[in-house]
Amino acid sequence: MRTKIVAGNWKMNKSFQEAEELIGELATKLEDKELICEVVVCPPALYLEMASDYADESIFCVGAQNVSEHEHGAYTGEISAEMLDSVDVDFCIVGHSERRKYFDEDNYLLANKVNRVLDHDMIPIYCCGEVIEEREKNIHFDIVEQQIKEGLFHLSEDEFSNIVIAYEPVWAIGTGLTATPEQAQEMHAFIRKLVAKKYGETAAADCTILYGGSCNAQNAVELFAQKDVDGGLIGGASLKADDFIKIAESF
Length: 251
Ligand code: PEP
Fold this sequence. Notes:
Blueprint: E1 5-9, H1 16-30, E2 38-42, H2 48-56, E3 61-64, H3 81-86, E4 91-94, H4 97-102, H5 107-119, E5 123-128, H6 132-136, H7 140-152, H8 157-160, E6 164-167, H9 181-199, H10 201-206, E7 208-212, H11 220-224, E8 231-234, H12 241-248
Helix pairs in contact: 1-2, 5-7, 7-9
Bound molecules: phosphoenolpyruvate (PEP).
Phosphoenolpyruvate is lined by residues 9, 96, 168, 173-174, 212-215, 233-237.
């Protein structure tokens, strides 16, 4: 079902103590809020269990930043979907551009990660987006189309109904350069059309598509006002409770 979502990707930031402070602050400050979106907090894997304990008493959900493409076994250092599920993780980011760039994750490997997450009844937040050179060459629609087709379109219609897509132009991530609301809307509408072509109009209308890339408390209202933008995947601005909550109030 199409839901408004604001998800915070903490990336590799904060000590355990700092993480617990921020989660506690979020839990307290969200207590009296009546939000029309779901709030998802994605801390480093080490803090997921602690975050889940706080989430039990609060309105936010917990997401992981990554998952292994393997079920289980001799994969030193990896964390499986089953493990995430066992500490009550609800969402998992798959295919963040930093994973694609620094860990060579391609669309086919990501398709396997999506499968693992779905196998354990969690919701993948599947990231796509072009680098600046691709936008300059005017091939950004082709790039996003390929990422979505190869990473997601092996799914059945039923499986696809549990997918959240995050459009994150790579040139806007952590750079302070935000896509204009028009650029975001244009790509989100394009993605929705791709989904309609593959799975039908109802599936497309029900698909949640988030924007990510230097979204903050100042620009969120205008971005979220776009017809096909259903919320945001937030990096830097999710590290401060007040900023993050203000973004969640931007609908
Ligand atoms: C992200 O990491 O997904 C992201 C959007 O980062 P930032 O908001 O800092 O650009």
